[in-house]
């Protein structure tokens, strides 16, 4: 019986060598790769996200944990069947038009990726029409908009409006985030959710999917 | 002398936004007086947060602040029309915050700046995003200085902001900007280096000690201005002490004055 708690402990302490050993031991004990991924790594990364949200873990630790997790996912990849890795939900993320900031947005993307979601990171300075085009192309169910400036927050509203006009609004949940963004602003522009940090963003996406 | 650009009059701060919305002049005047008293060199004025109200809010703020302000203002807006109006209202040569190499912003700002007498904050940002190496920062600074010189702004009136980035996302972000500042100052001794500092500590706990330690390091590299809250007593004390240690305080008089008045404590 594989002890997934030990994986959680290793990931929370950013201990890549121990985590790698645990994954290899689990494989040697015939634990299915799919279980190691879901019950071990992804579940552990959820706890890292929660700890980040509560202020018990910090960005450098989360980056280190994600790196440790990434190298273990590489071990599992050849053993996972087609479509076994991701949850099936397609998530778009990008910084809105006129805004070039990407640090926070990339953290959110990384946390979601570690949570087993299929992430399409569009980058920065993304025009409303490009979000719309990508929703169609990637068959996205979730769209995450980022803005770091008060001057680019209106572009979030324009993006939401463009999604409404395109007739795609009912197919997607829209989440917004970034330093100046608030729940009140999210409500005002008609977004479905606001997340204050990468941990809660990743949790919110999952709640939308389930 | 190290120049502090006081960042408090910004409508993205809750209390300031409320004061501006209610036209509470007393609140604004008191805040400006406090910033002057603790040694700010410029008062930054940003009216951008109430979307759709920037021009009227900026006009009211300048009308309110001017009679009580003995130091120059830093006019903080991306909109040349707002800046043009603000520029005509100030009674001392202002600082303009800011220009960058992002095409839209650059093209809008250059005609405004052409032939004007002002100081200008030049952000090392371009359409590729945040700079990724010290060489990258230096290249952008060079570009900005060349372009601004071309419209009549002398190098001594340019305040380059190298864009401090969070060390939490990459351990080299501190040394990257320090190296860049040294390189810029080596090539352009007259240019000023300014910027916000708190980005360095984003994502880490106990941020103030990181910010304070970083400002001292940045000053050694050549930073001679910063956009900060001058009512943050500890960072102001660090700046004054570092200024002394770098040989800018004859007979340590300013330091001693600060200790006696209670602004500097161990």
Structural notes for this entry:
The complex is a heterodimer of chains A (210) and B (266). Chain A is of the alpha/beta class. Chain A has 2 domains: 76 residues, Methyltransferase, Methionine Synthase (B12-binding Domains), Chain A, domain 1 (Orthogonal Bundle), CATH 1.10.1240; 120 residues, Cobalamin-binding domain (Rossmann fold). Chain A is 55% helix and 13% strand. In chain A, strands 2-1-3-4-5 form a 5-stranded parallel beta sheet, with helices on both faces. In chain A, helix 8 links the parallel strand 4 and strand 5. The model of chain A has no long low-confidence stretch (mean pLDDT 91). Chain B has 266 residues and is an alpha/beta fold. Chain B folds into 2 domains: 79 residues; 139 residues, Alpha-Beta Barrel (TIM Barrel). An 8-stranded parallel beta sheet of chain B has the order 7-6-5-4-3-2-1-8, with helices on one face. In chain B, strand 3, helix 4 and strand 4 form a beta-alpha-beta unit. In chain B, helix 6 runs parallel beside helix 7. Chain B is globular. The two termini of chain B are 22 Å apart. The chains are: A alpha/beta (210), B alpha/beta (266). Chain B: One of its GO terms (biological process) is tetrahydrofolate metabolic process. Chain B: It comes from Desulfocicer vacuolatum DSM 3385. Chain B: InterPro entries: Dihydropteroate_synth-like_sf, Met_Synthase/Corrinoid, Pterin-binding_dom. Chain B: This is 5-methyltetrahydrofolate--homocysteine methyltransferase. Chain B: Belongs to the vitamin-B12 dependent methionine synthase family. Chain A: Belongs to the methylamine corrinoid protein family.
Task: Name the descriptors.
heterodimer, A: 210 residues, Methyltransferase, Methionine Synthase (B12-binding Domains), Chain A, domain 1, Rossmann fold, 2 domains, 5 strands, 55% helix, 13% strand, B: 266 residues, TIM Barrel, 14% strand, 5-methyltetrahydrofolate--homocysteine methyltransferase (chain B), methyltransferase (chain B), cobalt (chain B), transferase (chain B), Dihydropteroate_synth-like_sf (chain B)
């Amino acid at each position: 019986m594989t002890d997934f708690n030990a994986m959680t402990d290793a990931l929370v302490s950013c201990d890549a060598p121990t985590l790698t050993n645990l994954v290899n031991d689990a494989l040697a004990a015939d634990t299915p790769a799919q279980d190691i991924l879901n019950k071990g790594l992804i579940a552990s990364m959820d706890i890292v996200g929660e700890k980040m949200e509560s202020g018990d873990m910090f960005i450098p630790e989360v980056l280190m944990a994600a790196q440790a997790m990434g190298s273990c996912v590489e071990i599992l990849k050849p053993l996972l069947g087609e479509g076994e890795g991701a949850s099936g939900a397609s998530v778009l993320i990008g910084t809105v038009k006129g805004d070039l900031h990407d640090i926070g947005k990339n953290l959110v993307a990384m946390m979601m990726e570690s949570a087993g979601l299929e992430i399409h990171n569009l980058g920065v300075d993304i025009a409303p029409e490009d979000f719309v085009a990508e929703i169609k192309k990637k068959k996205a169910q979730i769209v995450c908009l980022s803005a770091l400036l008060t001057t680019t927050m209106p572009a979030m509203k324009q993006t939401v409006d463009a999604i409404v006009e395109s007739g795609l609004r009912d197919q997607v949940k829209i989440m917004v985030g970034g330093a100046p963004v608030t729940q009140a602003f999210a409500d005002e522009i008609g977004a479905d959710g606001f997340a204050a940090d990468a941990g809660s963003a990743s949790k919110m996406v999952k709640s939308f999917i389930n | 002398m190290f120049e502090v650009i006081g960042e408090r009059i910004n409508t993205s701060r809750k209390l300031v936004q409320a004061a501006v919305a209610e036209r509470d002049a007393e609140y604004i005047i008191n805040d400006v007086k406090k910033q002057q008293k603790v040694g700010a060199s410029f008062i930054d004025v940003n009216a951008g947060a109430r979307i759709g109200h920037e021009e009227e809010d900026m006009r009211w703020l300048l009308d309110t602040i001017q009679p009580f302000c003995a130091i120059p203002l830093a006019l903080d807006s991306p909109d040349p029309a707002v800046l043009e109006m603000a520029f005509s209202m100030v009674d001392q040569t202002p600082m303009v915050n800011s220009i960058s190499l992002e095409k839209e912003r650059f093209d809008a700002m250059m005609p405004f700046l052409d032939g004007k007498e002002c100081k200008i904050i030049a952000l090392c940002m371009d359409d590729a995003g945040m700079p990724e190496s010290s060489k990258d920062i230096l290249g952008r600074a060079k570009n900005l200085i060349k372009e601004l010189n071309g419209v009549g702004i002398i190098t001594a009136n340019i305040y380059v902001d190298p864009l401090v980035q969070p060390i939490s996302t990459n351990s080299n972000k501190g040394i990257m900007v320090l190296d860049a500042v040294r390189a810029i100052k080596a090539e352009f001794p007259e240019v000023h280096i300014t910027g916000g500092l708190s980005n360095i500590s984003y994502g880490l706990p106990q941020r103030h000690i990181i910010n304070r330690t970083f400002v001292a390091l940045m000053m050694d590299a050549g930073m001679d201005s910063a956009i900060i809250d001058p009512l943050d007593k500890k960072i102001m004390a660090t700046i004054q002490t570092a200024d002394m240690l770098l040989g800018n305080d004859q007979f340590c008089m300013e330091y001693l004055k600060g200790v006696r008045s209670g602004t500097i404590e161990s």
